[in-house]
Amino acid sequence: MKSLGNIRRSFAPWADPDSKPFISFKNITKKFGDFTAVDNLTLDIYHREFFALLGASGCGKSTLLRMLAGFERPTSGEIILDGQDIAGIPPYRRPVNMMFQSYALFPHMTVESNIGFGLRQDGMPKAEIAERVRQMLKLVKLEQFARRKPQQLSGGQRQRVALARSLAKRPKVLLLDEPLGALDKKLREETQFELMDLQQELGLTFVVVTHDQEEAMTMADRIAVMSHGNVIQVATPAEIYEAPNSRFVADFIGDVNILEGKVKAAGNGRIEIAGDDFTVRTVGDAAPAIGTGAAFAIRPEKLKVSRAAPADAAINASEGEIWDIAYLGDMTVFHVRLPSGKVVKTSMLNAQREVENPIGYDEKVWVSFAETAGVVLKD
Amino acid sequence: MTKLGSRIFSRLVIIVPYAWLVFFFLVPFVIVFRISLSTTAIAQPPYEPVFRLADGISGIIDNIRQLSFDNFVWLTEDALYINAYLSSIKIAGISTILTLLIAYPIAYGMAQAPRTWRPTLLMLVILPFWTSFLIRVYAWIAILKPEGLLNQLLLSTGLINEPLIILNTNWAIYIGIVYSYLPFMILPIYSALEKMDHSLIEAAQDLGCPPISAFWKVTFPLSLAGVVAGCMLVFIPAVGEFVIPDLLGGSQTLMIGKTLWTEFNSNRDWPVSAAVATVLLLILVVPIVFFQNMQAKAEERGK
User: Fold this and answer.
1) Domain around B244
2) A70 pLDDT band (50/70/90 cuts)?
3) Total structural domains within chain B
4) What is the pLDDT of residues A321-372, one digit of tens each?
5) What is the pLDDT of residues B139-167, one digit of tens each?
6) Chain B contact for A106, CB < 8 A?
7) Domain-embedded: residue B46
8) Is B158 at the interface with chain A, CB within 8 A?
């Protein structure tokens, strides 16, 4: 069976027409004065899903999260959580908890009291609070730091306290606002996997806001790519990467070469596009009108650079000249200048330590790709 | 070389404030303390001289022999002084609490105001300082006197039938102190509240705290350093306040500042008034030390 990317686990309630969404944003609009932060947005999130809202700053992702937490009220539209419209419920009565970007740990309380804060609000008996706090400290591996103040902890430890505090009340949904933004790269990568494991273990619904596409790709079951208060595409990381629905998404996630041209032929699951440098033949069910403009997106690692001409040099292949080379360790990136002057980016995995007769600057090469390697963008 | 130079420089920098304190606080205090150990005399100034260096060492020893703590004993024997101290502390304490109750909401409102408004609001708080303190206290006489502005207003609206007697009572003193010292309370509280991260309040609400409870559990404890600083800045000068009780208070108002003034000017008893001033200083040192301890602890917490 073929599928896009390497699928992590068989969890896809969104593909099942019978499953009901756990969180539904219905025609949500949020305006701040003249500025529209979220524009008539509709989105479903399922139970036990790890969902990422991804976008550049100002795209409305944080506003959406804050509406879910209750700090902002939608100007219009409904937010349904577990079958209940929560638009009018204040934040302190919502069954969701948030982990703040700044962590927002109470500086005048110890780690223990921070974690137990929400439980004390609920009037839980003291012994139970102590037990729950102990569990939480164990979960985030901070048992020996219980009596410290937040200022006496490192950034990574504070992040864990914030996480433990937001999980202590066992919320229906955990909201994470740029949860790893303040950590350095190595710690961030480790913590991404810890968060995934934790989400699996606890069986909770996580909604994370991030501007870091790698973070979203690593952790999320599905990603909503947002721009200007709208969701542009909601899909699994593999779909977002391999089958972006628009120029924006293709460009936003990872590196991409976009080849422009005119539709030459379409039908039978094939589309042919005539461009300046390439005649593209690709798989595709859509049947755009012959002669209309089309954009074909292909990722750098799916372009092949070779000295020898491919078997069929007329289709999906072009001559070019090596313009720039960047050696990145795990791979080498070639910028190849095509006859029209367009420069495409290609990357090659460095599977071997030593390369015989490597491709050098200014060399004439062939750039080619397979019929299934790219995707025709819809706009 | 540069290291040595900078070390000398940093020593010099530290010497400046210490030298200031020695010359303008410690030396005058020692002189006042010495006067308090002297006795009155018909002379100019009206007490037995402090030191007569001309008499040599025997003269100084003789001088030291003459020192007496009689003035301090006298303070404990006459109930007037003890009552004046207690009454001053009471008036200053009540005024401080009233000031806090008024200043906190103002400071809170300022800290919540849009960022662009804050400099203006801060300016408005400081604005009264541009007029002389004495003139502002005099203005309160015009407002509070039986035929003053306040009574005219209340009578004309029909809220009262007879003028309220406020002037020359302790209430007038409270009003005067609260009014005069309000900025000293607002500013430190505002600075504590303004620094606070708003997401802390959101976090408290997110964890199930209604807004009022979030205020008492998060906002207030975090502004405590500002509250303590403000209370000290109001309480300490209010205890020794002279102008406000003299102008607004009545003849029955007993405050140590007034007592000191009477002792000094009417009785011309410099040694006793010096003793009164010394004891006042000691009374005030206690809250100052307490305040400094609080700050040191808060700083330690910050680390």
Assistant:
1) 77-302
2) very high
3) 1
4) 999 999 999 999 999 999 999 999 999 999 988 888 888 898 999 999 998 9
5) 999 999 988 899 999 999 988 888 888 89
6) yes
7) no
8) no
Q: Can you tell me the distance from the alpha carbon of A40 to that of A44, in angstroms, rounded to the nearest whole number?
A: 14
User: What's the gap in Å between the CA of A67 and the closest CA on chain B?
Assistant: 12
Say yes or no to pLDDT of B12 above 90. no
Helices A155-167 and A126-139: crossing angle, nearest 10°? 130
Q: How far apart are CA A264 and CA A273, in angstroms?
A: 5
Please answer whether residues B217 and A108 qualify as being in contact, where contact means their C-beta atoms are separated by less than 8 angstroms: no
- Which letter does DSSP use for residue B23 in this model? I
What is the three-class DSSP state of B144? helix
Q: Which amino acid is at B241?
A: E
Cβ B207–A152 below 8 Å, yes or no? no
Residue of A nearest to B205 (CA): A92
Domains of chain A (ranges; CATH) run: 13-95+171-250 (3.40.50.300), 255-376 (2.40.50.140)
Residue of B nearest to A69 (CA): B206
Residue B88 confidence (pLDDT):
93
Task: Return the residue of B nearest to A109 by Cα.
Answer: B218
Q: Measure B192 CA to nearest chain A CA, in Å.
A: 13
Cβ–Cβ gap A92/B209 under 8 Å: yes
The token pair at A234 is 């909601």
Residue B2 is assigned to a structural domain of this protein: no
Chain A partners within 8 Å of B222 (Cβ): 107-108
Residue B5 lies in a domain: no
ipTM greater than 0.90: no
Contact with chain B for residue A185, Cβ under 8 A? no
pTM of the full structure: 0.81
Contact across the interface for A118 and B207, Cβ inside 8 Å: yes
Question: Do residues A49 and A203 touch, judged by C-beta distance below 8 A?
Answer: no
User: Mean pLDDT, to the nearest integer, of B238-245?
Assistant: 91
Long-range contacts, B277-282 (Cβ 8 Å, 24+) = B277/B32, B277/B36, B278/B29, B278/B32, B278/B33, B278/B36, B278/B72, B279/B72, B279/B75, B279/B81, B279/B85, B280/B85, B280/B239, B280/B240, B280/B256, B281/B29
How far, in Å, CA of A277 to CA of A184, rounded? Answer: 42
At what angle are helices B270-302 and B70-77 packed, to 10 degrees?
80
Cα distance between residue B137 and residue B135, in whole Å = 5
Mapped onto helix, strand or coil, the DSSP state of residue B78 is coil
Q: Which of residues 131-160 of A touch B (CB under 8 A)?
A: 149, 151-152
At B246, give phi and psi (nearest 5°).
-70, -40
Q: CATH number, domain at B195? A: 1.10.3720.10
**Separation CA A78–CA A82 (nearest Å):** 13
Q: Give the count of Cβ contacts less than 8 A between chain A and B.
A: 66
Q: Does A356 touch chain B (CB under 8 A)?
A: no
> Is residue A249 within 8 Å of residue A240, measured between CB atoms?
yes
DSSP 8-class letter at A180? T
Q: For position A110, what pLDDT does the model report? A: 94
The neighbouring-strand residues paired with A349 are A331
Report which secondary-structure segment, H or E, holds A179. Answer: none
B213 touches chain A (CB under 8 A): yes
Q: What angle do CA A79, A239, A178 make, to 5 degrees?
A: 50
Residue B151 lies in a domain: yes
**Both tokens of residue B186?**
């607002």
What residues in B contact A71, CB-CB < 8 Å? 202, 205
